[in-house]
Structures are given as structure tokens and as C-alpha cells.
Amino acid sequence: MRIVRGKNVRPRESHAESGGSAAASDGDDSCTDSSDDDNDDDDGAVEEAKIGRKRAKISVVMSYIYDQVELLHHLSMLLRQPRLAGRDIKSAGGEGNPSAFAPFDYSHIVEKFRHWQHIANSGSEYFETRSQQALSSLCQEPEEQEQVLSENELQARLYMEATHGSYALMQRLARANTRRREQLKYWEVHPSRPGASLKDKAAENEARTQGGDWPRTIYEETVVATDRQPPTRVPDVPIRDPWEAFFECPFCHISLESSLMRDRQSWK
Amino acid sequence: MNTKREIDSGPATTESRKPPTQSLSQLFQKCLQLYSLLYRALEEDDCEPVKLEYVDLEKARGEFGRLRLWGIQSKAALPAQARGSLDDTLRRDQAITDKVADMFRLLMDELDLGMEEHALTLAFNLGMVLT
Fold first, then answer.
1. Which residue of chain B comes nearest to A7, CA vs CA?
2. pLDDT digit string (tens) for B21-33?
3. Domain locations in chain B as residue ranges
């Protein structure tokens, strides 16, 4: 790359041209010398072509940046899928480690499928032998399991896919069982105790306070009406002379209108 | 998406930028920094591409805001160790993590390219011709 200083560049004019080549000739003062004029025209055309290309590139690059941001927004739909969040199992330990029960869960599903298939096609011996082969491959010794399992499992997988295409379903069921087992195990270790953390926190705050006489809210017990204890209620309207237009309240000693107090809501 | 790399100025490869361990949060913050630098460069008074309307400054600012909003919504703006962050959400799905990281790296390459193009335009304005 070579940088040449001092060229007669007029970026405004040359940038303004979209094509950058045709309208490059300068009109007035360049008409005097024909040879210089040709050279100037050639240089101007080359520079304007370069500038036009630069203009196109910066526009294209910016549009690519906008597209990339748009792609990220499209990606957020994928990220909102609940399976990615993993909200159920909160234990950090054991992440990425395959569960020890996974092969057993898978073999259980295989056996179930075999059983159902056996019920459906009781006369099919071929399926029996192949499924038995797949099942036996899963129950071999752990030392040899890694090599033998992969080969046999591949055969079983191909067979399952070829026969009823249910291998993916079996895998999903086995994974779901394994995950449920992990979840139950996690709940065993971390039992749910509602409010336990708040109580611990309150006890901790209490221990930190030396005097222990912080203001605290005391709630009254709710009174529930039972057979023995009637509910608290506003007493009835006192018995009075029906011909009197007004009477005195025995509790607050206010003169009340008799006709209005016939309605209990008004009395209350 | 890779066709965007085929711009005639020798694009930077994603592999060249790929460090061994860089969280999604770090990559996103780097993208924001680069975009901020590019926007500040475009925002200058004598910025020729903006004057000549090659670049719409309002749109660039809007897209910067959209990028920040995406980071907040997808929790990519949170630190990698924070609970519920994008790194935390995708910790079990390495394939999607790699894809998102590649998208971030691609965006960083494009922002670098934008800065480079802006610098070249600036050099033209200063009377320096690159041949």
C-alpha cells in the first residue's frame, strides 16, 4: 500500500457523483491544455471510481451491521424456548456429567418398546432376537461396555430407525426419565421449606441486634366464628317506641331517625 | 451469512479473532464498545459519509439502541457468572452457545470493517490517496 500526499482531490464533488466516471470532466479552466486535461480526466476518473467504491463499501458494511443486529433479534425467539432455561434443576453440581442411571433408563425404555412390540406382533421372532441383542449389549460388563456398546448400540439404533423409526422417541423418553430422576434426587437433598430462609434471616438479624428491641409488627389473631363463640357483630337496633320519630342511641347517645334506622345497614 | 465476508477488502476471519475462552457476556460488551466507537466516529461534525448521506446516522443510533435492548432482554448484558444470564441459560447447550458467539464475532468483524472504511474515507478527505 502506498500513500501519496498532495493529490488534487475534491471529495465533495467526487463523492456526489454516484457513478464516479462519466461526469468527471471539469468544465471551465481545464479546457486550455489538451494533454494536461486528458491526464487530469484520467486521474479524476480513477479517484472517483475509488471513492464511489468506498461509498458503496461503507453503505454495504453498515447494512451488514444492521442485518446482524436483526439476526440477533431473530435469535431471541430461539433463546426464549423454555428448554434452554433449565429452570427446574437448580443444582450447579453435576452439570455436563452424564447420569449413572441414564443407560438403565434407556434399557428400560427399550424393554418397554420391546414389550409393546411383542404384544402387537407376537409372531415376529426377528424383532425378538434383535431387541434381545440390543438389550444384552446394554447389560454387559462396564469394562467392555464402552467398545461393545457403541457397536451394538449403533446396530440397534439402525434397526430401530429402519423398523419403526422410534429411536428418537426412545431417546427422549429415556432422557426425560433420567432428568426426572435427577430432579427428585435434587429435591431430596434440597427439600422445599417455605419461609425457612426468611426465618433464618430474621433469626440472624435478631442475633445481630444486641438489645433485641427493634420495632416489629405484631399481628392480631383472626377471630373466627364458631358454634361456641359467636362472631363479633354490631348489636341490633334497640327496642323503642314505634311512634317516636327519633330515638337516642344507647352507645353513642346520638339522636337517630327511627324510619331511617329500620335499615340495618344505616344503623351499622 | 458467510457471504457477507466476501467483501473485496480481505475480510477478517472469525477464527483469527476466536480466543479460547471468552464468555458471551464479554463478546457482547466488546460488540457494544466497537459499535459505540463507530457511532462516535460517524457522529463527528466533518464525517463525510454522514454528510453525503451514505450513512443514516439516525438509523445507526437506532440500531445501536436495538443492540443494547437485545442485550438486556436476552440477559447477555449480565455478567457471565450472574444467575439467569445468557451464559448461564445456555450452559447446557454448547452448540447454541457457539452459534451465538460466532454471531458476536461476525458482528465485531463487521464493526471493525466499518471503522476501517470510515478511516479510509477520512484519509481521502485529508488529501491522502491510497493506491
1. B127
2. 789 999 999 999 9
3. 23-125
